[in-house]
Design goal:
Layout lengths: L7 E2 L3 E4 L5 E5 L15 E3 L6 E8 L2 E4 L8 E4 L2 E3 L6 H28 L4 E5 L5 E5 L1 H8 L50 E3 L12 E8 L2 E8 L5 E7 L2 E2 L3 E3 L9 E4 L4 E7 L3 E7 L8 E5 L2 E5 L4 E7 L2 E2 L7 E7 L8 E5 L4 E6 L1
Antiparallel strand pairs: 1-8, 2-3, 2-7, 3-6, 4-5, 4-8, 5-6, 9-10, 11-12, 12-13, 13-14, 14-15, 14-16, 17-26, 18-19, 18-25, 19-24, 20-26, 21-22, 21-25, 23-24
Length: 355
């Protein structure tokens, strides 16, 4: 509700009845306003006839010193002259009461926030705006109790409920952790973490690298990276046994510019201009190939019937080749409405991109 601290109080409207001293307010806040209406204040609706307030019953009910002399009416504008409630001492007392009530409300809400078992509670700020917040009990349930937990006693301490320190299981350290025998095969769920400089059962010849083990059930996955060759390996532990290391391949350890076709190997192709059959061969170069070196010959097969259309053809580089894509072409008369594939006539046919 709107507050009024001036000499006149006009908040809301009233309903009045002829010869009835009870006044009903609508939208008023007579008892709990910033400065409440008091006995001795003067009430009027026309500034001609005045009544003394002899009781403030609630925010919407006051009693006059005599029955209302006018006609019965609703939603009437009114005014209350603060004869009593407008004095300096009354104002000071009202302001002190408001501040005290706000302080007490905050303390009650704060106590409830600290002790409540509910998930949320309400805190009211100095502007009277209520905010729904999580209780301390709920915050502790969400964040756990790491602040009061025992710390781990070693970098490989697996005691449940203990708080980790920097370096435990290799986390946050540049050295890694050591374990019995420095043998990667001995790493288990109890010793999952990050390791460096191990000596046994590494996937590469040198002994230096970074390793991590992620437990999954009774097994898990280990990843290893060599610090010298910059190669990456992985393996899985299943039913208590390690599977062989597998190397991850990339453009660093794979030549994507040389293409070898075994006999019967096929590649999809497409027609251009009716006299060329083109084949795209993705490369690893950021520059366009300038020529090709080809060995062996290829056949052209119509996919719709499996028939060989041409055989013994040698590819040439096409001008539409671009970075990351070598385009080779075969000459002949081709039907644009058909789909074709190329196939090596014999094993070991190759196409090499030159840059």
């Amino acid at each position: 509700m709107t507050a009024s601290a001036g000499a006149w109080y006009r908040v809301g409207t009233v309903s009045v009845k002829n010869n009835n001293a009870a006044i009903v307010g609508v939208g008023s806040n007579w008892q709990n306003d910033f400065i409440a209406i008091a006995i001795g204040d003067a009430f009027t609706i026309d500034a001609k006839t005045w009544y003394e307030v002899i009781a403030v019953n609630s925010d919407t009910s006051i009693t006059l010193d005599r029955g209302f002399e006018g006609s019965t009416a609703s939603d009437v504008e009114y005014a209350i002259l603060r004869n009593t409630s407008g004095t300096i001492l009354t104002r000071i007392a009202g302001q002190i009461a408001v501040q005290f009530n706000q302080k007490q409300l905050f303390l009650d809400e704060l106590r409830n926030w600290l002790t409540s078992d509910d998930d949320t509670t309400t805190l009211t700020d100095s502007h009277g705006i209520a905010h729904v917040v999580k209780t301390v009990n709920k915050i502790q349930a969400l964040t756990g109790t790491a602040a009061t937990a025992d710390l781990t006693t070693s970098p490989t301490d697996t005691t449940p409920g203990r708080a980790l320190k920097v370096g435990d299981f290799g986390v946050g350290t540049t050295v890694g952790i050591s374990f019995a025998g420095e043998d990667l095969d001995l790493v288990s769920a109890a010793l999952s973490g990050y390791y460096t400089n191990t000596t046994l059962n590494t996937p590469f010849a040198n002994t230096f690298g970074a390793f991590s083990f992620i437990p999954i059930g009774t097994g898990g996955v280990m990843v290893a990276i060599s610090t010298s060759s910059e190669t990456m390996f992985y393996r899985a532990k299943v039913s208590g046994s390690w599977r062989p290391w597998q190397e991850l391949y990339s453009s660093k350890n794979t030549n994507l510019n040389d293409f070898t076709f075994s006999q019967g190997d096929v590649k999809s192709a497409y027609v251009r201009g009716g006299i060329k059959l083109l084949v795209d061969l993705p490369t690893s170069s950021f520059t366009s190939p300038t020529s090709i070196t080809a060995t062996g010959t290829f056949s052209i097969i119509d996919i719709s019937n499996g028939q060989t259309v041409f055989s013994g053809l040698t590819p040439t580089i096409d001008s539409i080749s671009s970075p990351k894509n070598l385009v080779v072409s075969f000459s002949g008369a081709f039907d644009r409405t058909l789909n074709y594939i190329i196939s090596a006539d014999a094993g070991g046919a190759t196409i090499k991109a030159n840059f």
